[in-house]
Design a protein that fits this description.
alpha/beta; Spore Coat Polysaccharide Biosynthesis Protein SpsA, Chain A; nine-stranded mixed beta sheet; two-stranded antiparallel sheet; 13 strands; 37% helix; globular; binds uridine 5'-triphosphate; UTP--glucose-1-phosphate uridylyltransferase; transferase; NTP_transferase_dom
């Protein structure tokens, strides 16, 4: 039902300097795959087929990553390295990719507004690729898309965070209307220590209805002088409905060094090493079958 997924990826990534001085944060690899590829896979799994990426200066490698590299492909053709490209080839074939450039970094709300031309006048998802989400069964966007079918309004993914960390997030308050679903009646971007309305923090997954664009247009710069999506969402919550969803799964803040290291260790042990072992077992059994 939701076709478009918007990836605001124009930020400077200052928390990860100097790594992000000339390399987009979204291209940092967790094990052997860039952050944005995890996000794109999650969107495809949720049935989305149009990936809309908001880029900025020095972000060309994002476009190159979701394109063919004929020279490289020719070079490794017929070797056992070819299979290392299977996954990304499949991803590229499963979706279309469009890009728009945010000329001035005026904040997440402004980045989302910049993507309007790409997503059009329909509900769409937003993924902040530096929030890496993993799950046992169903991706966070799939969980949210199912919820959208039922409620048809904007949805933000939230997670409980320790009280002394609420000042890093947009924080919501509201009434629990069902297991893990809250109708939002207040939200504050990066509240001062001790003033957060709850410990439920918004993480980098959203489903937004298109009326959000006009609300962003009418939003003045807020915290940090940036146009904040939280401020526009609060207006939407007051005039209509915004839900917060306590998703199932784990989320790593890969925009911070600590979160990135945690994600790398987790993905190595729980994804990469397991896939590798399964591949090797698969090859061994095919080999045995062919001998038999
Ligand atoms: P962050 O604040 O987490 O990203 O923005 P940042 O600014 O790149 O990182 P730090 O804090 O300096 O380390 C959340 C998301 O919004 C995008 C970022 O790329 C990130 O995915 N963003 C932010 C934009 O696309 N444009 C902006 O003007 C601001």
């Amino acid at each position: 039902m939701i076709k478009h997924c918007l990836f605001p990826a124009a930020g400077y990534g200052t928390r990860f300097l100097p790594a992000t001085k000339s390399m987009p944060k979204e291209m940092m690899p967790v094990v052997n795959k860039p952050l944005i590829e995890y996000g794109v896979e999650e969107a495809i799994e949720a049935g989305m087929s149009s990936m809309c990426i908001v880029t900025g200066r020095g972000k060309h490698s994002l476009m190159d990553h979701f394109d063919k590299n004929y020279e490289l492909e020719h070079q490794i053709q017929g070797t056992n390295k070819e299979e290392l490209l299977d996954n990304i080839r499949h991803t590229i074939d499963s979706a279309d990719f469009t890009y728009i450039r945010q000329r001035e970094m005026k904040g997440l709300g402004h980045a989302i507004l910049t993507g309007r031309e790409l997503v059009g006048d329909k509900p769409f998802a937003v993924v902040l690729a530096d929030d890496l989400c993993v799950h046992e069964q169903e991706g966070v966007l799939s969980q949210m898309a199912a919820l959208y079918k039922q409620f048809r309004c904007s949805i933000v993914a939230v997670q409980e965070v320790p009280e002394d960390e609420t000042h890093k997030y947009g924080v919501i308050k509201g009434e629990m209307i069902k297991d893990n679903i809250i109708r939002v009646d207040d939200m504050i971007e990066k509240p001062e220590q001790g003033t957060a309305p709850s410990n439920l923090a918004i993480i980098g997954r959203y489903i937004l209805t298109p009326d959000i664009f006009e609300l962003i247009e009418a939003t003045e710069p807020g915290k940090g002088g940036e146009i904040q999506i939280t401020d526009a969402l609060l207006k939407q919550a007051k005039s209509g409905c915004v839900l917060a969803y306590k998703f199932k799964g784990k989320r790593f803040d890969c925009g911070s060094v600590e979160g990135y290291i945690e994600a790398t260790n987790y993905c190595y042990e729980n994804v990469y090493a397991k896939d590798k072992q399964a591949n090797e077992l698969g090859k061994q059994s095919t080999h045995k079958e062919s001998i038999a």
